[in-house]
Specification:
This protein has 260 residues and is of the alpha/beta class. 38% of the residues lie in helices and 8% in strands. It contains eight helices and five strands; from the N terminus they run αβαβαβααβαβαα. Strands 1-5-4-2-3 form a five-stranded parallel beta sheet, with helices on both faces. InterPro entries: HAD-like_sf, HAD_sf, PGP_Pase.
């Protein structure tokens, strides 16, 4: 019998983060589904940072001009699978999501174009690729996406699942010459406790697919079929953002370069 695909360590980290550094639980950019992911993600994140800076200026009630944020350059995407690209525990890509992936890989203006940037997109799942027992899923996914050349990350023996595999994912991109640092990576997924926290831990940008793969969701109600933990994440995100006024801190590597 296969053991359940649990991730108790990730849950414990989420609780610790909420107690100590809750802003790391928040995404840098929120979109309904991956179909809304901007092709020019660098500019979208840049605008978010500028808006935050302007709000900070108003809050501090100062007329002093703050330094212009350093340009953001996203060269790589880390994509979650379950409830971001496919229904949970399946390898079936909804047509609109497949079309989005096709656009990201074939548009001549996309920074993730497969001809010019063949290794710019990597699927990192806590199911497919996380254990040999899911190898059939990996093979099926890579077969379905063979025309787009999007691989699935295979976690090495003894490796820990998201949000703890950021170093290994960063090394994958560096080995292929895609990025020079984690601040050139955006992690895209539907879970705050794994996808967003992994981005925070590795020093990358995070994009939260709030409604999973479901279009037209009322954010006050949430997408159908959410489990208790997913519902709690949505509630906590809204509380931290609306009631506490917190915002996701920019990646340390990007801030460090900006301060020089």
């Amino acid at each position: 019998m296969n053991p359940p695909n649990t991730n108790l360590r990730a849950f414990n980290l989420a609780v610790q983060t909420l107690l100590k550094t809750p802003s790391q639980f928040l995404p840098h950019l929120t979109i309904p589904t991956i179909t809304h992911l901007p092709e020019d993600l660098s500019t979208a994140l840049q605008q978010q940072q500028q808006q935050q800076q302007q709000q900070q200026q108003k809050t501090n009630d100062t007329n002093n001009d703050l330094p212009k944020p350093k340009p953001i350059t996203i060269r790589a995407l880390v994509l979650d699978k379950d409830n971001t690209l496919c229904p949970a525990k399946t390898t079936s890509f909804p047509p609109q999501i497949f079309e989005k992936l096709h656009a990201l890989r074939t548009s001549p203006t996309s920074p993730f174009n497969q001809t010019h940037h063949p290794d710019a997109i990597l699927i990192v799942s806590n199911r497919a690729g996380s254990h040999p027992r899911y190898e059939a899923e990996v093979v099926d996914i890579e077969d379905r996406l063979s025309g787009l050349k999007i691989p699935v990350f295979r976690l090495g023996e003894g490796g820990a699942k998201k949000p703890f595999c950021g170093a290994e994912v960063l090394a994958w991109f560096k080995e292929r010459g895609v990025v020079s640092g984690a601040d050139e990576i955006a992690v895209v997924g539907d879970r705050l406790g794994t996808d967003v926290l992994m981005a925070a831990r590795m020093g990358a940008w995070s994009v939260w697919c709030r409604d999973g793969i479901t279009e037209g969701v009322d954010p006050k109600i949430g997408r159908p079929g959410m489990n208790l933990l997913e519902k709690m994440e949505v509630w906590v995100e809204r509380y931290l953002r609306e009631s506490k006024g917190l915002k996701a801190p920019a990646p340390q590597g990007w801030r460090g370069s900006n301060d020089q």
